[in-house]
Amino acid sequence: MELRNLFSFFLLVAFTILLSSCGEEKPNASPEYIKEINDWDQRRVENLKRETGWLNLVGLYWLEEGRNTFGADENNDLIFPSNAPGFIGTFTLEDSTVSISVNDDVDVTVGGNPVTNMILRSDMEDSTTVMEYKSLRWFVIQREEKFGIRLRDLEAELVKNFEGIERFTINEDWKIPAEYSVFDEPRTMQVPSIIGTVTDETVYGELKFSVKGSNYSLTPITSGSGYFLVFADETSGEETYGAGRFLYVEGADSTGHTVIDFNKAYNPPCAFTKYATCPLPPKENYLKLRITAGEKNYGEGH
Questions:
Q1: Rounded to whole angstroms, how far apart are CA atoms 183 and 229?
Q2: What SS3 state is found at 33?
Q3: Quick count: other Cβ atoms within 10 Å of Cβ 242?
Q4: Where do the structural domains in the chain lie, given as residue ranges?
Q5: CATH number of the domain at 57-155, please?
Q6: d(C-alpha 301, C-alpha 188), whole Å
Q7: How far is CA 227 from the centre of its chain?
Q8: Tell me: the pLDDT tens digits for 138-152?
Q9: What whole-number distance in Å separates Cα of residue 183 and Cα of residue 202?
Q10: Which residue, among 119, 116, 112, has the nearest Cα to 139 in the 3D structure?
Q11: Cα separation, 164 vs 224, whole angstroms
């Protein structure tokens, strides 16, 4: 009996070790840093689910010059979802100005006030005009020479069902010191977009860093007091979104040094919805490196 019990004990120990080896990878980070990243992730999810977040997008309609009728009926130029009235009204694009005319039997408001006719301010202007009908919100977007209508539904299924984004295991090794090296003269960097436009961005320097003894660089766009990166790496299209990821980096200190925290790399809006107009990584920001940190791909991507 004693030998049998001893054998059973060893079997139990071996099974326990096997189970633990198949479990999730443990974070390589201090408790304080784990909390920092988890708090960052929670704020990220909350922002995505807000009224101005990306999860409630349900339509993007590019305007043709002249009159563009819109509503849920299929006879409109711009066909809204079925929870919209059949015929809401008309958008008119003329000389880079967009106006709206609302049909008499539809209650569309702006800032709580009924609208019949008005000129609309786009998302490239202060105080963008946002129109409302029940749970629907829409406004004009401008991308280079193109004008469109972006439509939100505050009761969209994606908002209701969203449970967060899978991430790589937190690893403090991906919080990497970097040097901001200023160019002799500002340069122009071409940033393509998922809708086929190209934006010329003025850039003033590059972020240089090392991973396991190899040197790399990324060219950021100045954003406030810091830097904004659109980058791709060797996980793109596999574990992470194929069209790259975004990352904010704090501005360099007086000695030109900062930190790139890849644990905060996140998906562009286009990973969640086909109704976004995301920038793509410029050629300067393709890394021959696997960045196994930050957000992984969401769903099947777009």
A1: 17
A2: helix
A3: 14
A4: 31-50+165-285, 57-155
A5: 2.60.200.20
A6: 30
A7: 16
A8: 999 999 999 999 999
A9: 11
A10: 119
A11: 28
